[in-house]
C-alpha cells in the first residue's frame, strides 16, 4: 500500500518546501527593496547626530557596510548571507544582527508560547461550555468576545497594569525576571486571540454537532459532553487551524506592542527601537526571521491538520512518512 | 427540523437562531447611536466640548473626574474630556483614509492580477503571499520607515498593511465577474476592453470589497492608534487617543483617568464600527443568497 504513495509524497513535500523557500525569499526581497526606498543617506542613520564625522570617514563607513557597491551586488550578497544565516551588523548596537536576534528571541518565544497555550485552552473551554442547548451563555459569550476583539492590546495592557500592579499591587509593574511578571503580558496577548478563536471554533462546533458522526456517537450512548469534547471539538479545531497564519502574525505583531507596554526585552522591543533609529540591518533581520517562523508554523499546521482530521490522511505524504 | 430529520434528509440545516434575522437588534441600535455621536465628535467637537484641547491649567493638574472636569485633568491640567472629544477626528480620519487608500491600492493590484494573464497574475499574487507572511504591524512599521513618522506616514502604513488582503478579494471577485454572462456579451458587442473593465468589472468587484472594508475599518482605526501609541504617529500635544495613552501611561499610579478614557472611546469606536460593519455584511450576504 505504501509503495505507490511515495512518489506522491515526495512530490508533495518538495512542492511544499519550494513554496516555503519562495515565501521567505519573497519577504526578504520585499524588505530589501522597501528599505532602498527610505529617503536619506543610510550613512546618516549609522553616524546619527555625531557631527564630528567628516566626509572621509563617511566614505569609509559607506565602504565598510558595502553601501558603495551597485544595488544588484548588494542584493546578491544580502541573499548569500541570508542563506548562511548571516544577517549583517547592526548600525547602532555594535553587534551582529544574528547574535542580537538570538539573544532576544528567548523572551519573545516564552511570551508567544505561553500566550498561544492560554489562548487555545481558554477558547476551547469557552467553546465547549457555551455550546449547549441554552442560548444565554452563548449570547453573553458572543458579546464579551466582540468587546475583547475590539479592545486594542496596548490599552488592555495599560488597564491591567493599572488595576493589578498599581491599584492592587499583586503583580510587578515591569519585567522583574520571575514568572509573575509574565502573567499580565500573557493575558494581554492571549485574550484577543482567544476571542477570535472562540468565534471561529463555535461555528465549527455547532456545525460538527449536526454531522452524522455526532448522531452516531450519541446513539452509541455517549454522554452529551463527551460527544462535544471528544468528537465535535476536533472538527471545531479545523477552521481554527486555518487561522494559524493570522495567529502567528498577531503574536509577533502583538509582541511589539506588549513588550513595549510592559517594558519587557525581546524581538518586539528591538524592532521598534530599530525602526525609530533607522537601523536597517536589524529591520531586515526581523523580517527574515518572521517569514521563517511563518513558514515553519505553516508546515507544522499541515501536519496538525492530518492529526486532527483522519479523513485528510490519504495522499498527503504524512501517512507514508 | 431536528438534527435527526436533517441527517435522514441529507440536508444541512443551519442551527436554530441563525435563520432569524432582519430585526433591528438593540445592540445594533446602540452601536448606530454611538457611531452617530462619534461622527458628531469628529465633525463638530466644539458642540460637545467647548474648551480648547491644548489649553493648560497647571493649578488644576491631575484632578480626578468630577463636576467641573467629567473625565478629570491630565498632568498639565488639560481637560481630558475635551481632549478625548477633539481627538476623535484623528483616529477616525486615520482609519478611514487608510482603509480608503488600502482599497484603492488593492483595486489596482487585484484587477491587474486578474486581467494581466497567467504570468502577471502569478507574480502579483506571490507578492501578496510574501507580504501576508509578515505580521501586519511589522509591515506597517517598515512603511513608517519609508513614509516617515507622523499622521500621514501612519495612514500610509496602515493602508499598505491592509492592501494585500483586499487585493486577493478583488482578484477573486474580478475573475468571477470576467467569466460572467454580461462581460461576455459586452465582449461580443465589441465594447473596448478598458471600457468593459471600467463599466462592468470594476463596479461588480467593488460591492463585496466595500463590505469587507467596513468590517476592516475598526481594525485600521485600532492599528493607527497603536502606531501613535508606539510614538510613530500623531505626536503630543495632539489630542490623538494613542498619543494620549502614551502620555497617560507615565501617570498610572496617580491618575488612571488620563489613560482610561481615550482607550474607552477607542474601544467604543471600534466596537460600533464593527457591529455596524457586520450588520452590513450580513445584509449583503443575505441579499446575495436570495
Automatic annotation (TrEMBL), chain A:
This protein's record includes keyword Manganese: no
InterPro entries in UniProt: BPD_transp_1_N, MetI-like
Keywords assigned: Cell membrane, Membrane, Transmembrane, Transmembrane helix, Transport
Compartment(s) of residence: Cell membrane
Main location: membrane
PROSITE patterns in the cross-refs: ABC_TM1 (PS50928)
Every ABC transmembrane type-1 domain range: 105-305
Tagged with keyword Hydrolase: no
Membrane-topology annotation of the record: Multi-pass membrane protein
Transmembrane segments: 12-35, 111-131, 143-170, 182-201, 238-262, 282-308
Family in the record: Belongs to the binding-protein-dependent transport system permease family.
Protein name per the record: ABC transporter permease
Organism: Streptomyces poriferorum
Amino acid at each position: 500500500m505504501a509503495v505507490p504513495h511515495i512518489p506522491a509524497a515526495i512530490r508533495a513535500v518538495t512542492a511544499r518546501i519550494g513554496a516555503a523557500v519562495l515565501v521567505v525569499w519573497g519577504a526578504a526581497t520585499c524588505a530589501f527593496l522597501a528599505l532602498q526606498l527610505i529617503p536619506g543617506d543610510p550613512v546618516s542613520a549609522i553616524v546619527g547626530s555625531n557631527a564630528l564625522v567628516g566626509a572621509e570617514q563617511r566614505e569609509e563607513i559607506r565602504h565598510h557596510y558595502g553601501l558603495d557597491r551597485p544595488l544588484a551586488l548588494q542584493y546578491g550578497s544580502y541573499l548569500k548571507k541570508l542563506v548562511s544565516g548571516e544577517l549583517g551588523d547592526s548600525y547602532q548596537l555594535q553587534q551582529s544582527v544574528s547574535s542580537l536576534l538570538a539573544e532576544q528571541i528567548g523572551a519573545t518565544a516564552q511570551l508567544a508560547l505561553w500566550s498561544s497555550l492560554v489562548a487555545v485552552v481558554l477558547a476551547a473551554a469557552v467553546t465547549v461550555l457555551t455550546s449547549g442547548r441554552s442560548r444565554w451563555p452563548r449570547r453573553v459569550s458572543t458579546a464579551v468576545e466582540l468587546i475583547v476583539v475590539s479592545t486594542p492590546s496596548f490599552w488592555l495592557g495599560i488597564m491591567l497594569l493599572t488595576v493589578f500592579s498599581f491599584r492592587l499591587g499583586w503583580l510587578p509593574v515591569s519585567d522583574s525576571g520571575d514568572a509573575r511578571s509574565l502573567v499580565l503580558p500573557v493575558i494581554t496577548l492571549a485574550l484577543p486571540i482567544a476571542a477570535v478563536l472562540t468565534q471561529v471554533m463555535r461555528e465549527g462546533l455547532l456545525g460538527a454537532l449536526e454531522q452524522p458522526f455526532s448522531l452516531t456517537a450519541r446513539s452509541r450512548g455517549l454522554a452529551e459532553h463527551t460527544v462535544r469534547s471528544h468528537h465535535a471539538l476536533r472538527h471545531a479545531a479545523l477552521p481554527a487551524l486555518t487561522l494559524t497564519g493570522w495567529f502567528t502574525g498577531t503574536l509577533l505583531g502583538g509582541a511589539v506592542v506588549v513588550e513595549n507596554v510592559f517594558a519587557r526585552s525581546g524581538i518586539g522591543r528591538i524592532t521598534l527601537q530599530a525602526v525609530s533609529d533607522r537601523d536597517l540591518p536589524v529591520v531586515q533581520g526581523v523580517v527574515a526571521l518572521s517569514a521563517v517562523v511563518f513558514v515553519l508554523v505553516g508546515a507544522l499546521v499541515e501536519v496538525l491538520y492530518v492529526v486532527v482530521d483522519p479523513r485528510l490522511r490519504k495522499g498527503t505524504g504524512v501517512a507514508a512518512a | 427540523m431536528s438534527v435527526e430529520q436533517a441527517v435522514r434528509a441529507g440536508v444541512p440545516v443551519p442551527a436554530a437562531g441563525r435563520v432569524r434575522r432582519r430585526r433591528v437588534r438593540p445592540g445594533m441600535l446602540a452601536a448606530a447611536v454611538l457611531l452617530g455621536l462619534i461622527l458628531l465628535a469628529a465633525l463638530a467637537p466644539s458642540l460637545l466640548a467647548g474648551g480648547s484641547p491644548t489649553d493648560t491649567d497647571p493649578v488644576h493638574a491631575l484632578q480626578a473626574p468630577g463636576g467641573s472636569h467629567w473625565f478629570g485633568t491630565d498632568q498639565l491640567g488639560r481637560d481630558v474630556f475635551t481632549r478625548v472629544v477633539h481627538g476623535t477626528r484623528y483616529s477616525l480620519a486615520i482609519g478611514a483614509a487608510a482603509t480608503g487608500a488600502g482599497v484603492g491600492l488593492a483595486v489596482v493590484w487585484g484587477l491587474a492580477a486578474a486581467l494581466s494573464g497567467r504570468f502577471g497574475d502569478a507574480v502579483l499574487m506571490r507578492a501578496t503571499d510574501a507580504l501576508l507572511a509578515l505580521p501586519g504591524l511589522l509591515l506597517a512599521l517598515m512603511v513608517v520607515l519609508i513614509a516617515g513618522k507622523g499622521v500621514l506616514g501612519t495612514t500610509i502604513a496602515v493602508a499598505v498593511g491592509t492592501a494585500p488582503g483586499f487585493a486577493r478579494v478583488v482578484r477573486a471577485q474580478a475573475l468571477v465577474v470576467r467569466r460572467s454572462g454580461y462581460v461576455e456579451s459586452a465582449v461580443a458587442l465589441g465594447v473596448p476592453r478598458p471600457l468593459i473593465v471600467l463599466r462592468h468589472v470594476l463596479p461588480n468587484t467593488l460591492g463585496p470589497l466595500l463590505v469587507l472594508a467596513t468590517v476592516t475599518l475598526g481594525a485600521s482605526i485600532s492599528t493607527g492608534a497603536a502606531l501613535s501609541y508606539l510614538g510613530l504617529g500623531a505626536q503630543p500635544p495632539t489630542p490623538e487617543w494613542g498619543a494620549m495613552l502614551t502620555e497617560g501611561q507615565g501617570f498610572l499610579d496617580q491618575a488612571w483617568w488620563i489613560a482610561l478614557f481615550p482607550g474607552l472611546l477607542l474601544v467604543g469606536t471600534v466596537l460600533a464600527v464593527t457591529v455596524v460593519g457586520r450588520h452590513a455584511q450580513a445584509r449583503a450576504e443575505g441579499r446575495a443568497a436570495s
